[in-house]
Automatic annotation (TrEMBL):
Designated name of the protein: OsmC family peroxiredoxin
SUPFAM superfamilies recorded: OsmC-like (SSF82784)
Any Pfam family hit: OsmC
InterPro entries xref list: KH_dom-like_a/b, OsmC/Ohr_fam, OsmC/Ohrsf
Length: 136
């Protein structure tokens, strides 16, 4: 799996996947786009919702809404936490089912598990241009 992000204008990028889906990416004040941090939040919330969907819809057909928040000190360039809130009609759901939903998200949601683990994100840059006649 790979996602490509290509520049389409000043501070404007488009991320695409191999299934043809795309999303606009830009700075936090760029109209009509998600900032990279917002995409991270969307990934965490989306992962929780997708992971829990089948378990939730077995007991309720209402809406499922997941929200993730950006928790960091003002001006910081690293998030301290990404809390996710999963909201749905739990009126017909017993505590055991809620525990199963929580366990499923905690054990199967790749995004939040990766955030908790603190996975490496190595950056590879192009090699500088080298000529065949460089001195030895």
């Amino acid at each position: 799996m790979e996602v490509e992000v290509r520049r389409v204008g000043q501070h404007e990028f488009v991320a695409t996947n191999d299934r043809g889906a795309s999303v606009r990416v830009g700075r936090k004040d760029q109209p009509g786009s998600f900032s990279p941090v917002e995409l991270l939040l969307a990934a965490a919330a989306g992962c929780a919702a997708v992971t829990a969907e089948t378990l939730i819809t077995r007991t309720t057909d209402g809406p499922i809404v997941a929200r993730a928040s950006d928790v960091r000190p003002p001006g910081a360039h690293q998030l301290d936490a990404v809390p996710v809130v999963l909201d749905f009609d739990a009126s017909g759901v017993d505590e055991e089912r809620l525990a199963v939903i929580r366990r499923a998200v905690e054990q199967l949601c790749t995004v939040t598990r990766t955030l908790k683990q603190g996975a490496d994100a190595p950056l590879q840059l192009p090699m500088p241009f080298q000529t065949a006649s460089e001195p030895e």
